[in-house]
Amino acid sequence: xxxxxxAQLDKANLRTVAxxxxxxxEPAARAAAAEAAAAxxxxxxxxxxGEVVSVFASIGGEIxxxxxxxxxxxxxxxxxxxxxxxxxxPLLFRLWEAGxxxxxxxxxxxxxxxxxxxxxxxxxxxxxxxPLAGFDARGxxxxxxxxxxxxxxxxxxxxxRIEALGYAFAVQELPAVPAEAHDERLxxxxxxxxxxxxxxx
Length: 201
Fold this sequence. Notes:
- 29% of the residues lie in helices and 20% in strands.
- The protein has four helices and eleven strands, in the order ααβαβββββββαβββ.
- It has helices at residues 6-23, 27-45, 66-74, 148-159; strands at residues 52-54, 78-83, 92-95, 103-106, 112-115, 127-130, 134-135, 141-142, 163-167, 188-191, 194-196.
- Helix 2 runs parallel beside helix 3 (66-74).
- The termini are far apart.
- Keywords: ATP-binding, Ligase, Magnesium, Metal-binding, Nucleotide-binding.
- Its EC number is 6.3.3.2.
- This is 5-formyltetrahydrofolate cyclo-ligase.
């Protein structure tokens, strides 16, 4: 049986705190926050015409990405969504054309995640909009524990220049997230309260 490190225990406790804060948000506050976060994200991203931007399909209590997708399409970006190929492997990205319906795809565990149809072209994103359970001001991301985005960012960053933008509610910010050797830091985090820019600290 693998040993559980102190950092992993800390992350589990912090994840519980951040997700409880997220779950406590009322529907009206969630909708307003999604619009505000989308506006802040677009300010940080700047010109995106012709770029491939991977945006996650919101599930559970995650911040709604529909307002962001709408703004990205209006700005001329190509939208992609992540696909889980296999546990322990990097994500694949498929193009999501406007007007194309999403279909359930296999996610980690028993979770089905909305994704473009299997015949949608595979693409390599220029920008990765990353879901998270929690984050801190240094750009450390607290994910859901499967490591998909850390593995994916590591591969992509070795292959090309890519921007990683965390996307969440402001209430998910934590004082500090333990960083392990395999963790990939975010370039920024867009929330309803603004954009956290770690490089400016």
